[in-house]
Here is the input.
Amino acid sequence: MQFTRVTVQEQVATLTFERGKVNAINEPLVMELAERFQQLAADPQVKAVILTAAGKFFSFGFDIPEFLDFSREDFTRYLTKFTSLYRYLFLFPKAVVAALNRHTVAGGCMLATACDYLLMVPGKPKISLNEITFGSTLTAGFLEMLEYLVGTRNTQRIAYSGAMFTAEEAITINLIDQICSPESLMDEAQRIAWEMAQRDSRAFASIKLMLRQPIGDRMREREPDSIKEFVDVWYSGETRKQLAEIKIRS
Here is the structure.
């Protein structure tokens, strides 16, 4: 595959994605990640997954310059695939640990939020839902996941502000679970994923589904209307002006 690679160690698969220096998310990457996770779900030798990325960002978020050339219909198709990916990841039957080694922004934050456990390095890297700062709205499915993770008031704070949080700030609002040094990040992610992998697979999947299925049902119910709203805002005149100013340095 073009943008992802998988290694397996002691029943733990590490799925690393790399698309340029900032890992901007586009339709081929979404489709490839979905295929990888489907393969990992079906692999009896894999009991847990670490999701991480190479490059200067865990992910910049959507590849905005690329999407500026999309028709409304094409962008709606992409957004439907992206929201389906994070919903699938949120309900994934095996444990998923996010190892956030760089900036984790917008769509990248959405993917990380769908995981079971989030580790992040301290210092300069930031995690953010910054859509409001460039005139974009959010999807209802993501807000359901975020509220599950951080609670209602913290969800409002994150969504309204578009603030960029360091790991030290993010952990105080439950946006991440643990801070790790860059040197220990992957070893710690492996340790946590391995511990989860030792649980009975059927019991883990059952408990995870009972915890998350009610949220997944609301996501599925609310998402179609929110995608339409997202597209309407994305293609509004003022938002298009702000989007056109965003550049990605490869």
